[in-house]
Amino acid sequence: MSQDPIHIIGGGLAGCEAAWQAAESGARVVLHEMRPERRTDAHQTDRLAELVCSNSFRSDDADSNAVGLLHAEMRRLCSLIMACADDCQTPAGGALAVDREGFAEAVTQRIESHPLILVERGEVTAIPAQWRQVIVATGPLTSPALAQTVLGLTGEDMLSFFDAIAPIVHADTIDMSVAWKQSRYDKEGPGGEAAAYINCPLNEAQYQAFIDALLAGPKSEFKDWENVPYFDGCLPLEVMAERGRETPRHGPMKPVGLTNPHRPNDKPYAVVQLRQDNALGTLWNMVGFQTKLKHGVQTEVFRTIPGLEKAVFARLGGLHRNTFINSPRVLDTRLRLKADPRLRFAGQITGVEGYVESAAIGLIAGRMAAAETAGRPFQPPPATTALGALIGHITGGHLDAGGRSFQPMNINYGLLPPMEAPRRGADGARYGRGERGRAKKKAMSQRALADLEAWRAASALEPAL
């Protein structure tokens, strides 16, 4: 094992998980955390892994929820974050919620007491040339000085400080007896596809009712440190409507160049378009539907759109300050910066959303860095696992060739390769629609966990202690 330590910048969930995994694999680690020498507008303490938003790690159901599956995979790889979360649970039904202070204290104690981890407090503004292995895990609140350093290293013009998010829908919940596939004016794309969009038609009454609901719905308020400017290219839909009720109909909801094959003689008053969001075709995003509507009302409002009455959302819309790199462009499949392979990235800065997703990328980054330090090969988990699917998302494995902009994503089943839903149960009885969907998710989870175990065995990979 090399005597050069792995330097990890950022003491959040991803950085702590990366440090733990690397150290448990035998590598020396220096974990750099700028608090308390330099504070952020969101953190309240100097503890590592402080949760600044919710105290929930979301669903713990590995059979029917993708984040529960990710929990299970991480537990099998002896995740520090999952172990501390399990030790600090609070009642939350089927979700895994934690005592916020107890959780941060538990992570801090275990990191600081590890014999191979040195915690250094103070801001890192530049990355010294003598650091041979570095993991940047600074999250959405990356300090301005380090952000400028990262900009220079990536070769990009800018980091994305403005996160405009449109909702994403599971393809199999769109009613195609109402919606149809067609590009405007049947224009072919680079791959020769002339039906690249799913279109949902609205008549005038439906459009006016939708605009009423959009304007009346409660909106998220931003904190002072989330001073988000609006750009004309990614205005929230309700801001468009506030500028004039017809504005969306002349923007993302314009009905031109489209003919509804279900009702060819009826011209829609407005059309909502969805664009394929991953190469598997399992996820479709609502084009131009960036929104500040609170999550609780988005589903209700968007299900008034014909064809989306039973839509299931892989991600709801939002607009907030964020810092993330264009990972598919600048990272390789080992999470290393192509322009400077000394550097790996982990956590939210890579373009994953959520506590568990951030820690998951930290887990893999830590093991990758330790393996490289020791001169051992390390293959990423297969794409059929939740861990592998997340890595595929941020390194471009699930992006199409159309050059779409990269946006952060939570783990969901749409990122995993699809499976045919079983039609009958073990007793031979035919599943109903809802039962079949649950059986499909369970089958995908079972495949993921089996493939994770096979990957671990084939890699001769011992779980961290």
How would you characterize the overall build of this protein?
- This protein has two domains: 6-159 and 325-437 and 441-458, FAD/NAD(P)-binding domain (3-Layer(bba) Sandwich); 165-319, Elongation Factor Tu (Ef-tu), domain 3, CATH 2.40.30.
- 30% of the residues lie in helices and 16% in strands.
- It has helices at residues 13-24, 66-76, 80-87, 100-112, 144-154, 204-216, 237-242, 295-302, 327-330, 355-374, 386-394, 433-458; strands at 6-9, 29-33, 56-59, 89-90, 95-98, 117-121, 133-136, 160-165, 168-170, 180-181, 197-202, 270-276, 283-286, 313-315, 318-324, 336-337, 340-345.
- The strands form four sheets. It has a six-stranded mixed β-sheet, covered by helices on one side. The protein has a six-stranded antiparallel β-sheet with strand order 10-11-12-13-9-14. Strands 3-5-4 form a three-stranded antiparallel β-sheet.
What is the element layout, followed by pairings?
Layout: E1 6-9, H1 13-24, E2 29-33, E3 56-59, H2 66-76, H3 80-87, E4 89-90, E5 95-98, H4 100-112, E6 117-121, E7 133-136, H5 144-154, E8 160-165, E9 168-170, E10 180-181, E11 197-202, H6 204-216, H7 237-242, E12 270-276, E13 283-286, H8 295-302, E14 313-315, E15 318-324, H9 327-330, E16 336-337, E17 340-345, H10 355-374, H11 386-394, H12 433-458
Parallel strand pairs: 1-2, 1-7, 2-6, 7-17
Antiparallel strand pairs: 3-5, 4-5, 8-15, 9-13, 9-14, 10-11, 11-12, 12-13, 16-17
Helix pairs in contact: 1-10, 2-10, 2-12
Précis, in short:
By secondary structure, the chain is an alpha+beta fold. The protein has twelve helices and 17 strands.
